[in-house]
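Marked as duplicate of an earlier ticket. Keeping the data here for the record.
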Amino acid sequence: MLQYVQRTRLRLQYRPYKGRGFTCNCCGKQYEKFAPRYPAAEDKQALDKHHVIAGYGEEELCPWCLSTSRERLVIGLLATQIPVAGKRILHLSPEPKVFAFLKQQQAVITSTDITPGFYQKIDKHIQYADATQLPFPDNAFDLVIGNHIMEHIPNDRLAMREIYRVLQPGGRAILQVPFSESISNTLEVPDINDPKQQSALFGQKDHVRIYALKDYLQRLRDAGFTVNYQLYGSFIAYFQYAIQPLEGFIHITK
């Protein structure tokens, strides 16, 4: 209901801005500008202090369908660089627009989360699964998508190893995270369970870390992956989709 109200409000508010400027690659609508999204006051200090690229900004939400910049970046890559038609895909904590795109491509999707009820409106067949103990055989999937989930998982290294295990050789993973290039080491308290402290330290009440980008890439390599980071500046063709400024893409392959 809340999302319906927000979508209705933005459609009315941004009606005067319909036209060329940005194009949503989820719904196809065009606007001179998209809607902003800002962090809550309790989160802002940590995000600003550490210069975290975390999915906030002036052109964050499509006024028509409420797609986010992080969804539009992933869909841009899936549409142009990572073939998904007919592929076996494990979608962790499925995002609505990414999941819908995968269905349109007739991918074979298995979606999971540790709290599956939260996602049943996205996929009524979603299964329970802990990312650190995936209930799937080795080499079961062509692609694993877990967009912005690792910052929530206390034992992220174990989750990375599990994702590596269930991917077939040559398979790929999409595991984008909020990150900072201004810190030399990841800031984390994996066993923390204090939403106020988590907001103050990590910029969101359910995060357990802020990744230093270089450290995150190394953790993925330690899990066995081949990792290459594609810089934001190379995504000029995607700028029309209002992707997150300065967010590059992490290409992850088994």
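See parent ticket for discussion. The two ends are 41 Å apart (CA to CA).
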